[in-house]
Amino acid sequence: MTFKKILFVCMGNSCSSPMAEVIMQNLMVKTSLYWEVDSAGLRTWNTGRRPHKKCLQILREHGLRSDHFCRQFTVNDFRYFDYVVAMDEAVFKELLLWGSGNPANKDCHVLLLSSFGKNGLPAFIESLSPTHKLKNFRCAYYQIKECCKQLILSQKVDIVKYELPSSEDEDLYYANKEKATQELDSVDPMPESSNGSGLYILPPEVRSQSSSTDPSYSKALENSLLPPAMPSCSQGTQRKLCRKCGQKFLAAL
């Protein structure tokens, strides 16, 4: 599987690009791709600060969080990242100017996120700023998420679906474990030797019977002394999806 590095870029790295970074990271985990994802801004307005509180609030509403600190985009990012994704057309045009004539931009592709819409058509992404209302951030979240899905599909990668064990299997495992524990607690300990050496000895009647050549008796005696085997909990499975199934899987995320 090809490992890729993606950088989302907006003007201040406070609203749009941090949201896209977290959304793409979440999609990476769910599709078992694990690409490196980061975000940056063209300006130094918010360098060293946390993303805007409205951006963080929308992410929390969807069970996500961001540990990102705003930073400025540099020319060296062209050399490190495979894809530099602009959040709007103004940023896209400026990135093209940054990359024109720059030898570091030889292997880096500058993309516009809104160009990855459904059915290959351009999409609309709400332009965000700290002055916008919370409903604008909510709309932008779903728009960015849909474009990120199409961006993943455009790379023609193998999407792997990780299936966790069902709750019924877990309930059966813990029920068997509790039953086995109760059986072990109900077994009487073997008598200790009278000389206080701490060694365990078998009763005389068992020692006399242990010399028997009956293999079935030896096997039964061995099984009676060993604790019951604990059932193993079923592990999750990974299943590689075809392109059509991958589209359906991403659409459901």
UniProtKB/TrEMBL annotation:
EC number of the protein: 3.1.3.2
Keyword Hydrolase carried by entry = yes
Q: Is Hydrolase tagged as a keyword?
A: yes
Catalytic center residues: C10 (nucleophile)
Compositional bias, Polar residues, is annotated for 207-216
The record's SMART domains line, in alphabetical order, gives: LMWPc
Q: Please name the Pfam families in this protein's record.
A: LMWPc
A GO molecular function held by the record: acid phosphatase activity
Q: What class of enzyme is it?
A: hydrolase
Q: Where is this region: Disordered?
A: 198-223
Phosphotyrosine protein phosphatase I domain: residues covered: 4-154
Q: Which domain of life is it from?
A: Eukaryota
Concerning PANTHER family, the annotation shows: ACID PHOSPHATASE, LOW MOLECULAR WEIGHT PROTEIN TYROSINE PHOSPHATASE
Say which family it is in: Belongs to the low molecular weight phosphotyrosine protein phosphatase family.
Name recorded for this polypeptide: acid phosphatase
Q: Which gene encodes it?
A: LOC108048764
